[in-house]
């Protein structure tokens, strides 16, 4: 069977052709899984420290190739080079270093019970072969999240990167290969999710690790269930931000802009619904508008660009549908609401909407682009109810100088990660994952690494 072609287009430059590569055949996927299976016993027999020593070489090579990584990400998915280091490359490197520094501690055997006669110890052992699917929106850091956590605990991996950024995948593959890991420990395949991704996850693997849409995540969970293998799923989100009347306005405005509009709003845990106390509603909306208007929309490879394109035309079309639905139901546009005229490609202007009703798509659905619906509230209970009015529960944002109130509200939000006054939970020590339709399991830190392991209890008579 002749291999299908994966075509890479530049969303910044009117979908200019970057190049094409061959999609992996099913036989090639089989071979990669067999190779990973063969390599796994030897990789798992190494100590955590021995694996870390080998993986440190890769970290150093990633640092040396930052310019190359930044350039291909800007071309393929439109992340501006002005922010790429901050939100993707340096972020991923910090996570990798965090794993390397702390994994021995996090995975050390743990005594859970001891008496005069017995001692009971938990051991954390590798699952086996992990099938990993990486999305396009943070193509470096999420690669680090999926691949490095599994390799450190002793799993071997077969990775499929997104078909939206195949040359990013090729570059990361070449860097991984430069470290001369044992053959079969790291494997990568290429293709779309419906064909290659599906075939990989139905193959002889011991763990599914996926970041992406809720619909695909549910489907992968159905694949995992009859095989009785775990599925670590980090899925969609529609995080609410609650701004109380005593919020520090400058800090809040800067945080709102970053958490909604950075990476053109293509962030799973981004702030996608804004709930503002009525007494400061106009002030917050105006402040966010003023800041957003200072930002330049343009080619992701231009260092002066703040906001680049979305990843593909289909993303723009979906955003247009969601905004059109809001307008038909009475929403007001504060800024944006259309494609910019001065650039050609997958661009959409940063958009702020008010007069929102709760049957609008921009409220009910995940909005994976630079659109922010804003609603007022009067009472705390009302704000909490609005924040929880979502099928998702990945993240939440609270802005108030009353820490006691912030903590009380945080306990009532149905979400896995909460930032209070712009505190950053995206660090390697902190587990990350969601409630409801935002996924299963956790990534990062002690809890995340242990999710990738089988837990063995050894009970010993003294």
Approximate strand percentage: 15-25%
Strand order of the largest sheet: 12-13-14-11-10-16-17
CATH superfamily of the largest domain: Aldehyde Dehydrogenase, Chain A, domain 1
Structural class by sheet pairing and helices: alpha/beta
The number of helices is 15
Structural domain count = 2
By CATH, the topology of the largest domain is: Aldehyde Dehydrogenase, Chain A, domain 1
Helix percentage range: 40-55%
Level-2 CATH architecture of the largest domain: 3-Layer(aba) Sandwich
The major beta sheet can be summarized as: 7 strands, mixed
- The mean pLDDT is 97
- Total strands: the figure is 20
Low-confidence stretches: none
Rg from Cα:
23 Å
Q: What is the first-to-last residue Cα distance?
A: 62 Å
Specify the CATH class of the largest domain: Alpha Beta
What spatial form do the alpha-carbon principal axes imply?
A: globular
In short:
This protein is of the alpha/beta class and 462 residues long. It has helices at 26-45, 48-64, 66-77, 81-106, 141-153, 166-178, 193-201, 214-227, 249-261, 281-293, 313-328, 361-364, 380-387, 403-412, 445-451; strands spanning 5-10, 16-22, 110-114, 118-126, 129-133, 156-160, 186-189, 207-211, 231-234, 239-243, 271-277, 332-335, 351-354, 371-377, 392-393, 395-399, 417-420, 435-436, 439-440, 453-461. Strands 12-13-14-11-10-16-17 form a seven-stranded mixed β-sheet, sandwiched between helices.
């Amino acid at each position: 069977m002749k291999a299908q072609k994966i075509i890479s287009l530049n969303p910044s430059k009117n979908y200019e052709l970057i190049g094409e590569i061959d999609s992996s055949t099913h036989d090639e996927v089989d071979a990669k899984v067999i190779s990973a299976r063969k390599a796994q016993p030897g990789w798992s027999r190494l100590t955590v420290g021995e694996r870390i020593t080998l993986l440190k070489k890769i970290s150093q090579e990633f640092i040396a190739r930052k310019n190359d990584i930044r350039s291909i990400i800007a071309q393929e998915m439109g992340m501006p080079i002005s922010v790429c280091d901050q939100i993707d490359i340096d972020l991923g490197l910090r996570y990798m270093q965090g794993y390397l520094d702390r994994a021995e501690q996090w995975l050390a055997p743990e005594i859970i019970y001891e008496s005069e006669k017995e001692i009971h110890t938990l051991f954390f052992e590798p699952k086996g072969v992990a099938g990993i699917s990486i999305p396009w929106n943070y193509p470096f850091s999420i690669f680090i999240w999926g691949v490095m956590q599994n390799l450190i605990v002793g799993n071997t991996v077969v990775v499929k990167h997104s078909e939206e950024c195949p040359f990013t995948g090729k570059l990361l593959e070449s860097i991984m290969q430069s470290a001369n890991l044992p053959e079969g420990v790291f494997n990568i395949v290429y293709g779309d999710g419906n064909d290659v991704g599906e075939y990989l996850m139905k193959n002889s693997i011991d763990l599914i690790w996926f970041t992406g849409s809720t619909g695909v995540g549910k489907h992968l969970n159905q694949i995992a269930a009859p095989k009785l293998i775990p599925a670590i799923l980090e899925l969609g989100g529609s995080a609410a931000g609650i701004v109380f009347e005593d919020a520090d306005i400058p800090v809040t405005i800067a945080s709102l802009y970053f958490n909604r509009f950075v990476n053109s709003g293509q962030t799973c845990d981004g702030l996608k619904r804004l709930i503002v106390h009525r007494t400061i509603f106009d002030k917050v909306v105006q402040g966010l508008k003023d800041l957003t208007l200072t930002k330049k929309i343009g080619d992701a490879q231009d260092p002066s660009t703040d906001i680049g394109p979305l990843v593909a035309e289909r993303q723009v079309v979906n955003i247009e549908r969601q905004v059109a639905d809001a307008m038909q139901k009475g929403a007001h546009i504060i800024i944006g609401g259309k494609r910019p005229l001065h650039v050609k490609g997958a661009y959409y202007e940063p958009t702020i909407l008010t007069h929102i009703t709760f049957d609008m798509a921009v409220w009910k659905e995940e909005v994976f682009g630079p659109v922010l619906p804003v609603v007022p509230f009067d009472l705390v209970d009302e704000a909490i109810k609005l924040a929880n009015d979502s099928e998702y529960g990945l993240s939440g944002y609270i802005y108030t100088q009353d820490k006691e109130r912030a903590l009380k509200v945080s306990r009532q939000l149905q979400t896995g990660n909460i930032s209070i006054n712009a505190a950053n939970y995206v660090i390697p020590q902190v587990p990350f994952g969601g409630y409801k339709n935002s996924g299963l399991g956790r990534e990062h830190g002690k809890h995340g690494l242990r999710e990738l392991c089988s837990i063995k209890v050894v009970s010993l008579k003294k």
